[in-house]
Every structure is written in structure tokens, then in C-alpha cells.
TrEMBL record:
Superkingdom field: Eukaryota
Protein name per its UniProtKB record: Multiple inositol polyphosphate phosphatase 1
CDD domains: HP_HAP_like (cd07061)
Keywords per UniProt: Hydrolase
Pfam family, one: His_Phos_2
InterPro entries in the cross-refs: His_Pase_clade-2 (IPR000560), His_PPase_superfam (IPR029033)
PANTHER family to which the protein is assigned, alphabetical: MULTIPLE INOSITOL POLYPHOSPHATE PHOSPHATASE 1, MULTIPLE INOSITOL POLYPHOSPHATE PHOSPHATASE-RELATED
């Protein structure tokens, strides 16, 4: 099925807003297109774009974030391997791993991990109550957006994991009551235990079961 769209004029408004945003972001100039919008207009357009991403690639539907199952498992597999090599006294074979993708890759992963999740979902009728929302893609996914995980050995078997979004420390949602930005690695694994044991991409995306299995 194709994506639902509004009247033709809504596409024109969105295009004008994008032209304003792109020229400002890339050229740092106040584009003539920006004169079509005041601050309130811009906030409404921002919310409309957030609403689209929320339901298409994030918390709107569970399957959105489950599309990152393979990346999720790969991420923890690499962390486990580095930690096992370090604990056994071996040289860590992959001290740094860099994976490059798109915003459409990063957003489902952040949602799978629970980052930037508000208490109430974004909808078309609660704009007024969402002015302080955490889910704001202009901040989550700017140009060159990135997600970094750093393992630290603090001595005495105290292994900690620090997440950073766009080079800024963040806290794993629900891992610690104190919302530490660098919790114990074991606590992080326990928090995501169900996903680590499941979150199978083939199972999640299976459309039809074998008749013998039904």
C-alpha cells in the first residue's frame, strides 16, 4: 500500500519548509522560503515531520524498531567479543568498529533501545501537550547523526558501558534508578535480556507460516 497523503497543497507546504531548512542548514542563509513561515508555523511543521517518523520508523508500531534486530545483535556480539578478549588477556582484535548508515537505520535502533520515548505517543490531536517531548528528530537525527557505545574497564571487574547520541552522553532508559550515563555492562545486558534472547529478524518479518506449523 502507498503512503497516505493529504491534499496537494500540503505537499507544497512541506516542500517549502524543506527548502527553507536545507538552505539554512547547508548554506547558513535565511532562505526566501523561510519568509513563508513564522515560528509557530515552523513548530507545527516540525511536529508533523516528527509524527511521520514516529509512526513510520519508531514507536508507532512495534515492528518498526524490530527491523533493527540484526543490527542490535551485531552490536552486542561485538561488545561481548571485545570484553571476552580483554578479560582473557588477549589483544582486542576490534578495538573500534564503525558502521555507516542512514537516519532511517539509526532511528529504529534508538527506538528498539528505548531512547527518546515519551510517556504519551505522538498523535494528530495532542500537539499542544507535546511541546516538551523528547522525540524530536531534528535533535535526534541531525546531519552526521551518530550513536556511540564505549566500554570502560574501571578496575576490579567493574566493566561499564557508556552510550552517546551525537557525541552527548545519554542514559539507557530503565537500566538504573539513578539514570547513570555509564552503567555496569552486566546491568545493560540484563535490561535487554529479552531482546538478546529473541528479536529474530526472520521471525518478526515472517508473513506466512508453513501450513504444517499452524
Amino acid at each position: 500500500m502507498g503512503e497516505r497523503r493529504g491534499p496537494p497543497w500540503t505537499d507544497m507546504v512541506e516542500a517549502a519548509f524543506y527548502l527553507c531548512a536545507y538552505e539554512f542548514a547547508i548554506k547558513t542563509v535565511n532562505s526566501p522560503w523561510c519568509r513563508l513561515f513564522d515560528e509557530v508555523d515552523a513548530q507545527v511543521m516540525e511536529y508533523a515531520l516528527d509524527l511521520k517518523q514516529f509512526w513510520k520508523r519508531a514507536y508507532g508500531y512495534e515492528i518498526n524498531s524490530k527491523s533493527s534486530c540484526i543490527l542490535f545483535h551485531d552490536m552486542f556480539s561485538r561488545l561481548d567479543k571485545a570484553l571476552n578478549e580483554h578479560n582473557s588477556g588477549q589483544k582486542v582484535t576490534e578495538a573500534v568498529t564503525i558502521q555507516v548508515g542512514h537516519a532511517e537505520t539509526l532511528l529504529p535502533l534508538l527506538a528498539l533501545l528505548g531512547f527518546f520515548k515519551d510517556s504519551e505517543p505522538l498523535t494528530s490531536i495532542n500537539y499542544a501537550s507535546q511541546t516538551q517531548r523528547s522525540f524530536r528528530t531534528s535533535r535526534m537525527l541531525p546531519y552526521a547523526a551518530n550513536f556511540i557505545l564505549v566500554l570502560y574497564d574501571c578496575g576490579g571487574g567493574d566493566i561499564r558501558l557508556q552510550p552517546l547520541v551525537n557525541e552527548q552522553p545519554v542514559a539507557f532508559p530503565g537500566v538504573t534508578d539513578r539514570q547513570e550515563s555509564m552503567p555496569l555492562y552486566g546491568d545493560v545486558r540484563r535490561h535487554y535480556e529479552e531482546l538478546l534472547k529473541g528479536c529474530d529478524f526472520e521471525t518478526v518479518c515472517e508473513l506466512f507460516k508453513n501450513p504444517a506449523e499452524v
